[in-house]
Design a protein that fits this description.
The chain is an alpha+beta fold. The protein has helices at residues 2-28, 34-37, 54-57, 87-91, 98-108, 246-254, 292-302, 317-326, 346-353, 393-411, 459-462, and strands spanning 115-119, 132-133, 143-144, 148-151, 157-164, 177-181, 193-196, 200-202, 208-211, 224-225, 236-238, 259-263, 267-273, 277-278, 288-289, 306-313, 331-335, 356-360, 364-365, 371-375, 384-389, 421-423, 435-443, 446-449, 466-470, 480-485.
Amino acid sequence: MYQMRQWIAAAEAELDRELALERLLGLTAAPAAAPAAAPRPAPVPPAVPTPMPVAPAVPTPTPVAPAVPTPAPLAVPVPTLVPLPEPAAAHAGHAVAWEQARARARDGAGQPLPVVTRDLDAALGHALAGPLTALTDLPPFDTSAMDGWAVAGPGPWRAGDGRVLAGGQPEPLRDGTAVAIATGARLPAGASAVLRREHGEIAADDGMLRDRSGGPGDGGRRDVRAQGQECRAGEVLLPAGAVVTPAVLGLAAAAGYDRLAVHRRPRVELLVLGDELLESGPPRDGRVRDALGPLLRPWLTRHGADVADRRLVADDAGRLRDALRGSTADVVVTTGSTAAGPVDHLHTVLAESGARLLVDSVAVRPGHPMLLAELTPSPEGRPRLLVGLPGNPLAAVAGTVTLAVPLLRRLGGHADPEPYRTTAAAALPGHPHDTRLLPVRRVAHGVAPLPFDGPAMLRGLAVADGLAVVPPGGVPAGADVEVMEAPGP
């Protein structure tokens, strides 16, 4: 045992000498010198014979380094060996969770774009900048809900000549009288009800109108649309942020509006990157058709964008740099070049331009190498943003619903939609660690997965009713799952 203690003491002394030598070299030699990159050799024990029976009983003293006090970093800098990153790791940011990425996209948009006033036919698809309040009662006066007779008091009634039509100004009715009336016409003053044509009959003997329906003799306000039945003047019809649909245009017109105050739609420029893309004809000569241009433009428009331009950009850093510098759009959407391949220049160009990355890779499949960046402001000082989508079609769609849609909706002033949840009619396979966006179709008892769901495939998406948000590990049959709508025409 005494000999073993001697061996340990000698090893510690040898290590002290090596550390002292390293300190000296650290003060005089360049940190990048080749000798400093070599790993330190293990200490050599002194030539003291150790009895063979003792060696197995004593463990090899490997944890020697902790016994030596760590040198003060300020007094003696010791060079640290840091391995250079692989090319893929040099551009790969920390993959954020799917929901967190969507939240960053919404927050990164800041405030909605300015308020503009549009004629009704030009406001379609915009978001209301304020509540839509009724300018009048609806209906604005009592109207007939059916063709028949407006009657006053209990029957039978003496039917007068003439007919009240929609848009007319009827004469008042006295008790015991009636007048023919059309659907939508204003009810005469004094009228108590409308007797449907199929329920009334004028007797041949005395010319009196009688009710053959068996209902109350006084009419009981039957088949009358009372003034203010739908709303009263000043009542809020829709909240701010509601999307202007065709039905909203009709409601606004009925409530007295000629123009609407809405948020300006964000202007978007779509840059489809890649030397391998064709704009017409079948794939040939190693090149493929651009599927994302035709797919993404209506998808972005459906979610509030005004897509001002779509163009192909070659895999060239200079051309990409010029395209970004010359863009006047609120949001630039690119496809491809988000990874770290030999012609993926997007990260480099963004870094050179002073852009700030808000999201760089998302824990979602497909589409994880997506990004969101804040570009330098426009010459007028307007904020500009860039959404970088992967080049594979289904992966690009995943990036669109993850980053582009929340960003565009917030810029356009749209209210956040309520998540739609339904039942998984069959098991929905998931990724071991990431969220998965899976094309699904509605069936009798919920949604079921579709085939052809690879990152480069669109066949499943083409017949899908939506994208199921599948958490890591998957969703068993019968469990609830969130589904995002796949926009239709």
